[in-house]
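ok, trying the design again with the full structure, not the truncated one.
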């Protein structure tokens, strides 16, 4: 077994619903991802990309099969252990941002530290550092809802970075942005991958983003149709 594998999926299947309504969203997926890699998950809408990302990020459980995290079977982990792993080791960036629009930019960024019970002074210090890495320290006290789309996504990236994650999961992070703004967000994610060696798993429709990744997983009707590296 390759000890550098940060994520291994073994025969994972996801079935939504039961009985007549049961729907096979993913079927027998096998893959492994190495530390520091950038991997694009591509495929048509409804093919199962987000479902796969959720399973790999331990946000949801497979119906069958196992996900190994650092060679440990996630199905054997307790809820608290999973929560801590997600909180401390993973960063998430979603197309829909999921920011609290009425709260300040800084408070949005430091939320994972609050959950981890880090003290206020350290929270704010680390929050400002994270905002610096996305060049938004000047917006720290603004209401998150007042920012532009690109700025909001940079806030999400700052929030994803706050715990020095080993992996960033991004689900169509540029999907709601115009191409110029999207490029800034894209460059930022790849910079973090290269400079901080953060493993990047990115669901995308954008062929340019997919090409910049070390490898591409093509998903079709819940199955891996091919792997490529361009
Ligand atoms: N919670 C759910 N309950 C039932 N079906 C779902 C659920 N989430 C996703 N699906 C279905 O599973 C399939 C894959 O969805 P998804 O992984 O979101 O696709 P993608 O991200 O590639 O667009 C779709 O047909 C979708 O309708
Ligand atoms: Mg999706």
């Amino acid at each position: 077994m390759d000890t550098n594998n940060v994520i291994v999926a073994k025969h994972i299947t996801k079935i939504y619903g039961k009985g007549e309504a049961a729907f096979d969203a993913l079927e027998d997926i096998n893959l492994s991802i190495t530390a520091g890699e950038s991997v694009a998950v591509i495929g048509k809408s409804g093919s199962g990309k987000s479902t796969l990302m959720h399973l790999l990020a331990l946000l949801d459980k497979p119906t069958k099969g196992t996900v190994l995290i650092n060679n440990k079977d996630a199905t054997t982990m307790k809820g608290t252990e999973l929560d801590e792993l997600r909180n401390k080791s993973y960063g998430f960036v979603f197309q829909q941002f999921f920011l609290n629009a009425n709260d300040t930019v800084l408070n949005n960024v430091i939320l994972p530290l609050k959950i981890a019970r880090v003290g206020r002074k350290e929270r704010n210090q680390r929050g400002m550092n994270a905002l610096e890495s996305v060049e938004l320290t000047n917006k720290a006290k603004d209401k998150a809802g007042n920012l532009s789309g690109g700025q909001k996504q940079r806030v999400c990236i700052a929030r994803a970075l706050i715990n020095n994650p080993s992996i960033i999961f991004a689900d169509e992070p540029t999907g709601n942005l115009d191409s110029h703004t999207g490029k800034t967000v894209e460059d930022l994610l790849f910079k973090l991958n290269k400079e901080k060696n953060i493993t990047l798993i990115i669901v995308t429709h954008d062929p340019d983003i997919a090409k910049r990744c070390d490898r591409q997983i093509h998903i079709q009707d819940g199955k891996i149709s091919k792997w490529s590296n361009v």
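Keeping the full-length input from now on. The helical segments are 49-56, 79-89, 105-115, 120-133, 149-161, 179-195, 207-212.
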